[in-house]
């Protein structure tokens, strides 16, 4: 994950303080995965819509 809009420390802190149902990481993506890794994002979104 190469999202540098927030430091990795801040990203992990936000997840710890506001635990979501799940965390998905796209290796090699940046702040806009719909541009940098659209196929990977699509795969994750397709998985998410299957969650009851």
TrEMBL record:
<protein>
    <recommendedName>
        <fullName>AB hydrolase-1 domain-containing protein</fullName>
    </recommendedName>
</protein>
<dbReference type="InterPro" id="IPR029058">
    <property type="entry name" value="AB_hydrolase_fold"/>
</dbReference>
């Amino acid at each position: 994950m190469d999202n540098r809009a927030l430091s990795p420390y801040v990203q992990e802190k936000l997840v710890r303080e506001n635990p979501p149902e799940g965390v998905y990481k796209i290796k090699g993506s940046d702040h806009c995965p719909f541009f940098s890794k659209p196929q990977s994002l699509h795969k994750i979104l397709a998985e998410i819509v299957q969650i009851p």
